[in-house]
Predict the structure.
Amino acid sequence: MPIEVPQDIEDAIQRYKKDELLRGTAERTLETYESDLRYTFNYLGCSLEELDKSGLKELLYHLQNEKKGRRGDGVSDQTINVYFSALNSLYEFLSYEEDLEHNPIPAFRKRYLQDKTSSDGEERQLISVSEMAGLVLSVMKTRDKAVILLFAKTGVRRNELIRIDLQDIDWEEQSIKLKPTAKRTNQIVFFDDECARVLKKWINIRNEADPETDALFINQENDRLQRHGIYSVVTKHAEKIGLHNPDADRLDEKFTPHCCRHWFTTHLRRSGMKREYLKELRGDSREVDPMESYNHIDREELREAYLTHIPQLNL
C-alpha cells in the first residue's frame, strides 16, 4: 500500500507526475520519485510551504542514520541523492507553476550534499577488453552471459535492454530495434557473431520454458526481467572476479550495467570509429549542429563500421 500523505500534497505530486510525463521523463523514474516524496512528507509531517532548512536537515540525518537500508541503519549516498533529486524536481515544478515562491533544495544540496552527489573528478570504472572477456567467460548461466554480452556489444541502457522483445531482433542483419525513449534518437543497434551465438543459445533455453511474455530476458517466474534483476546479474558476477565492491562509495570501485556502456563507448572511440557513427550507435542527440540534420548516415555503412571496430572477446 502507498504511504498516505495529506490530500494537497498528493494532488501536487500527481500534477507534477503528469507534467513530467509530458516532458518525457521515464515512468520508472517517476515511480521512484513518487514513493520517495510520499515517504518524505509522511516522515516530516510538514506542508509543501513549511519545508525549510530545518526539515531538510532532519530528513538528511534520518536517511543517513535511521532509515533501514540494505546493510543496516542508514541508506546509501546514491539513495539519498535520489530523495533530494525528487524533492528538487517537485519544487522546480511548483515554482514554475507559481504555486510556491521559493525552491529550498538547491542551496541545501550545495551545502550538504555536493561532495556526495557530484561526480566531478570521479570516473566510472573502465575495464580492458581482456577483463571484459574474463567477466563474460566467468559466467556459467547462459541468460546472465547473454545479458552482460549484449550490454557490452551494444552499449544500450538498462531500461532499453529490459524492453527488448524477441520480435525486435533481426537475425539476418544482426540488429535490434529498441523501443522509443526520451533519451535515445537512433533506435537501431547491432551485434556481432560472438554475441549472436550466445543470444541464440539463450533463446533456445528461454523458449523451452514457454513463457507468456515476448520479453527477450525473463526471470525464474517466466516474467520480464526487471531493473533490479538486470543490475544484480551484472554486479554479482563482477563482484565474484573482483571488479565490483558493493560497499564502495567510489564509482571506480563498482561495476554496474552503465559501466558496459562506458566500456562500449571508450573502446570504440579508441579503435578509431568516426565520432558521428559512435554518436549514432549510442543514440545521442543529433541537434548539436543545425547542419547535422542534412547528414544522413547510411545504415549499411554504420553496420560495417560497427563490425570493424567492436572489440572481439574471443569467446
